[in-house]
Amino acid sequence: MGGRKMARDEENAYGSQDPEDQQPLAQERRLRLILAGRTGVGKSATGNSILGHRLFPSRLAATPVTRSCTLGSRSWAGWRVEVTDTPDLFTAQGRHADPDCTERASCYLLSAPGPHALLLVTQLGRFTAQDEEAARGVRELFGAGVLARAVVVFTRREDLEGASLHDYVRATDNRALRALVAECGGRVCALDNRAEGAERDAQVGELLALVERLALEHDGAPFTDDVYGLAWARRHARPEDTLRLVAARLAARGLGRGWGRQWGRGRRWLEATRRLWPLALLLLGGALLLVLLLLQRGAPGPD
Ligand SMILES: Nc1nc2c(ncn2[C@@H]2O[C@H](COP(=O)(O)OP(=O)(O)OP(=O)(O)O)[C@@H](O)[C@H]2O)c(=O)[nH]1
Ligand SMILES: [Mg+2]
């Protein structure tokens, strides 16, 4: 869980009524973004493009690169843009790596009091069953309502070779992808995360303008739910205590009870009862012997 940075006691320019939380007018408004998706699609690379510098570790690897949620921020067009990079929290594999919901709680704390946009990252031309699973996991964690704040971000824009992304999405025979894009209100964007300089700035500008429009459609208020409410209400408390409470709230929703957790519990139970096994076997053997003796006594004898 290294590298985690806790949510700060700051509010966007809108929601809070608490006078303690009011920001000076000159302060930048906030746009909070969460990067989500299966492992290896380019979440961290997308985060780095948005920030304009390399903050999140990003590389080609056979195993997950990002292991914990991390927050980065930058200024853009009068906004303070805050980006939370995540490990795979949304597929079964990712959830198994977070059996007690601590990492998902960390994502909540870093993006409290709630994101203005959720970036569902996928690779152009490779929308797989795992991408579908990740989208399902996002709905499961935040609720289906979060898709009203989602943007499907395609990495490897260069593979479009200048063609239109909207035409690509319209023409794709991948029905699951078309359905997801429709659920996300048709909000799509493509990035070449290898681009640099003015080309990168232009692509990121397109994405952030889309996010800005989305935020303004909701009068600047972020997406929120009861867990964000809890995280935000405890923003002045010790972060480690809040993390524990938020993780417990998520676990109470059943989010921590995947097969991995059941298996972990079963294994712990077997280990705890190992010393009782010889006694249990002895009792079982005795009971079997007794049943055999009773059967023999009840059987008719030779004529
Ligand atoms: N050519 C190209 N490569 C990209 C692009 N975006 C990401 N990549 C590459 O894809 C690989 C994986 O990128 P990451 O950013 O580590 O992916 P991730 O989703 O954060 O992966 P995890 O942290 O393991 O979940 C890296 O080698 C990136 O350079 C892109 O737009 N174009
Ligand atoms: Mg990553």
UniProtKB/TrEMBL annotation:
The chain crosses the membrane at residues 276-295. The keyword Nucleotide-binding applies. Residues 1-11 have a biased composition (Basic and acidic residues). Residues 1-24 are annotated as: Disordered. Belongs to the TRAFAC class TrmE-Era-EngA-EngB-Septin-like GTPase superfamily. AIG1/Toc34/Toc159-like paraseptin GTPase family. IAN subfamily. InterPro entries: G_AIG1, GIMA/IAN/Toc, P-loop_NTPase. Coiled coil: none annotated. Keywords: GTP-binding, Membrane, Nucleotide-binding, Transmembrane, Transmembrane helix. Signal peptide: none annotated. The keyword Nucleotide-binding applies. This is GTPase IMAP family member 1. Residues 28-232 form the AIG1-type G domain. Gene3D superfamilies: P-loop containing nucleotide triphosphate hydrolases (3.40.50.300). The gene is GIMAP1.
